[in-house]
Amino acid sequence: MLIINFVLPLLVLVSSSIKRNYRVVTIMAVVVILGHLLDYFNMVMPGTVGPYWNTPEVFLLVLGAVLFVVGLFMFTVLSALAKLKLIPTGNPFLHESEIYEYPF
Predict the structure, then answer these.
(1) Which residue range forms the structural domain that includes residue 41?
(2) Inter-axis angle of helices 22-49 and 56-82, to 10 degrees?
(3) How many domains, the chain?
């Protein structure tokens, strides 16, 4: 857990030039989230299901719980964002930003 949650992100993101790369930062964020999920899994599962944690029913239960939390988070965030007007008004550089083509 120490390597996934602390050492790997520290060593990868120590350089400021790497932190400007959106893909590397996104990958490291996913690694940290999966590391936390693995950490909580190791804390909770042995005490709750005992020796039966390796059965397909428990795997489906864990997968369903993770998908439920991710879906609830996405629903909450996207519902809140749908109520907001996200295009700035009165910005003198709005037209330039609309015609800008991303390099990737």
Answers:
(1) 1-50
(2) 130
(3) 2
Give domain status of residue 97, yes or no: no
Calpha distance 71→23 (Å, rounded)? 23
Any idea which residue has 């949650």 for tokens? 5
Count of CB atoms within 10 A of residue 57's CB?
A: 9
pLDDT of the residue at 104: 61
Tell me the pLDDT tens digit for each residue of 8-56: 999 999 988 888 999 999 999 999 999 998 898 888 888 888 787 778 8
Task: Identify which of 26, 31, 25, 27 has the alpha carbon closest to the alpha carbon of residue 6.
Answer: 31
Token code pair at residue 15: 């350089």
Residues 23 and 46 in one domain: yes
pLDDT, tens digit, 9 for 90 and up, residues 74-100 = 999 999 999 998 888 888 888 888 787
Backbone angles phi, psi at 56, to 5 degrees: -65, -30
**CA–CA separation, 29 vs 21, rounded Å?**
13
